[in-house]
Amino acid sequence: MGLLLAFPFLYPLSRSFFRGDASTVRPEWGATSGLARAQSTTARQSVDQVAQSPSFDPQPDLPRPDLIVPSTEVSPARAQEDWRLILHAPGAQMEAFRLLVGAGGRLSVHPDKQVLVAPSGPNVQFWDLEGASLIETRRIDPSDDDTLFTSARYSPDGRYIAFGSPYGPMKVLRLADDVLVPISTDRSINGDRIAFHPDGQRFVAIGERTPEGRNIPNAHWVDLQSGEARPLVPDEVKVVDAVVSDDGKYIAIAETQAISIHDTASLDQQMRSPLAEKPTYVVASPDGNWIVGLTGGTVRTWSSETGQFVQEANLDTGLEPVMAIDRFDDSNRYCVLTSKGKILIWDRDTGSTRFVGHHESAYCIRAIPGESGVVTVGFNNGSRLWPMPRPQTNSEPTAESQLAWSLVTVSADGSKMAAVGQYVHVWNVSDGKCLTAFEPRTRHIKDVCLSPDGSLIALVGQELKTEVWSVTQGHPVADYFDPDGENRWPGTIDRRSNCVRFSEDGRQLMVAEQDALRSYDVHSRQRLTELAKVSRKAGTVLISMIQAMDTDSQSGRIALAHTGRIVVWDPDDERALKTVETRGPLDAEHPGVFFLTTVNE
């Protein structure tokens, strides 16, 4: 059996309860549609020999952007962290963007160099922005394998990197000697958002965890020279974001319904002004005022003198809550990210706005030094590098420029690459040509998988609806729907979970739910195996809280990542062959469990 490796992932806490037995899955596109039975194909033969469903609807003629990447740059899915993909979409308003699969979290860009730092579980990645390539990956704290980091921030002088973790504690790395700087505090500051003082020796960290385990969104002022940390507001005040002024004299704290200004010398509150709507982000302005993003879809200027919003110099994004804002160097220009993934460049002096593109499910945006572009981060497929848009008279996006992708996968043989957003696109990696483009029927796709030879693509989406499409023909070939899908997949889960895989020969499809694993014959659509929460054979609990899966190409055995453990299953006997306990929680940004076929044990 191949050596089993598990990559850490952190599962969002859920209080939902699941049913014991799996419900029957019904094929939506007709179980008696005359689909061919499974034939004796090999792994290298195309499995795309399935009769078309009679309910097939012609797909619209969608834009087919080119994939610009040498074949040597694309690796199979189990080597995600080394991907460097370059996509070029059609349309005059969308320039080519580069996709760094594996770089995620609330990342940061070096103030003077084209270097990006991205947290990845217990590790940190350094990326070359000019070459869109991974420089190195290192462990943040060699003595701590359990703490998982989701945010990183360079100091203004580039000497330090502060790392935040949703469950704490945060760490500060001094780059000169690769030493972690101690922070003395009676609480575990997690640093979900971090803003440095201009001197690079102090910063404000947002979010903390009390010893009782309660998460309180607070604000702490951290001094690296003394190693001390002080809370800025009482525990009952919930903090959304904070930033330090350009001159380093003041801290602006955005609360759930107010903005308060604190003096950095005494840390005393200078003023506090209530707000009519909830802020989402606050950024310092060169003139001493504060730029505030709001849930109502506007970016407004808050005056430090009057304690009120000014009437002019505002940005209206159109009822889309503002997700993130960042400022370009020392200028008065800002990059803005909305909840719908729209990326805007706002010049506050002139009031002009330019559209860059869309990044579906993005939650973080960073300005690249020199105003050369921006970086956006999505929940599923890492970071994208966008060049600055050319001057244009119309800021509205064209239909072609609204293409967005939130999930990316590569076939096992490396020949095909697929990206999923509102539409599904599949490219031939060798020449970069788009093979097919279609709109899936299922929304909110959670996972995607290409068959080993790239001829089929499987999508799992809302309520665990599973679709299988032909890549070469662009037709749907199978569709399954679990009527209890909502119960099996709580709505509180907003991260990707690896839940669909093809067998090595491409003839079987496996779908992992929260409390059941089902395998199907791709051609006949018959359910072949079901491992449910309660085993009908043994009467004991077998599977619960599945987070990721993989299959062994030689034995057909299945590896399932549960909460706190990895289990290797024999699908024929419905029994566990091996159980591996994991150390601590695992990483939500890059979940995965993989067999290595080159090493035996």
TrEMBL record:
Composition bias, Polar residues: 38-56
Residue numbers spanned by region Disordered: 36-66
InterPro entries according to UniProt: Quinoprotein_ADH-like_sf, WD40/YVTN_repeat-like_dom_sf, WD40_rpt
Gene3D superfamilies xrefs: YVTN repeat-like/Quinoprotein amine dehydrogenase (2.130.10.10)
Domain of life: Bacteria
Protein name (record): Uncharacterized protein
Organism: Rhodopirellula maiorica SM1
Species classification: Bacteria, Pseudomonadati, Planctomycetota, Planctomycetia, Pirellulales
